[in-house]
Amino acid sequence: MTQKKVKYIIIGAGLSGLTTAFKLYQKGETDLLVLEARDRIGGRIMTEQHIDFGATWFQNHHEHLSALIDEVAIKKFHQFSHGKSVLVYNSMAPAHYFENDPSYPSAFRIAGGSIALIEKLASFYRDKIHTNTIVSKVVELENKFVITTNTSNYIANKVIITIPPRIASNIKFSPELPADLVQDMKNTHTWMSNAMKVGLTFKEPFWKAKGFSGTIIGQIGCVTELYDHCCVNNNNFSLMGFVNEALRDVSKEERKTKILDYIQKYLGKEVLDYVTYQEKDWSQYHFTASNDIKSIYMSPRYGNPKFQEMYFDGKLLFSGAETAAIHGGYMDGAVLSGLNAAEKIISIA
Which three-class secondary structure state does DSSP give residue 151? Predict the structure, then answer.
């Protein structure tokens, strides 16, 4: 097995890892590699058929993400929310219809899908990203690290681990990481790991023509949240939302029937004239979810102080959405952790 020597190894080609690589490049630190286990970049950002099946929205207060989007010249636009929205709060009572205050700013989305930011960041160092590369072991040897993967061995001066802490706990470290850190890694919920999304495309945005926003909210239904997901140029029309996790236990065919019946009930029979229908169950993705996945209905706690520390005499650190002390679990937290990782890793001689 060949060995590749490099100054920095970044494990994970999600938003955090790619942000770190981007910032290192800006500082002239180009001797790096990004190792990604999946066959694609983006991590829990995934855009297919113009639909974001992973990270999607951000708000005005997500300043780090907004600044990065501006810096790399990616456009953003407001989530469509005009018209009647539907609140389903009781299966025994009729739905409540409401309209959002037009003076209240809606969330933002990234033009071209969230993947547009991923692709732009990666464009600065595309040849430095190795996909289908699964890290199994990190060994400190003579003040350097030997990283064992399924394809090659790598030797690095410094390592930044940006994959979810629970997934990173599967990597074997030598010397071993502190036991309390490993336990906290295993106990940290992985954002999106229990989520299931559905996306439908259409020839026309029929819901808009009928005066609907496309929004349906209700924890008791087949789809707990549904939103308009048309693109910024208004030439790709779709709806996207979160599927009730109880439907994970039924067949795909039954689930699809239930979802379509539910949406049809509130938006109309036109939903049956979809062009494409897709589901993404993140619990089925090995590099996102673990076997002991549990549903989380309250916001999980992120930003554990242990993830802010540096290990192996300052040569190894953790990053990623779950490690961020501010806006953990959001794209903004991933960006902030990526920025901090770049600063920290350079600061140590």
Answer: coil
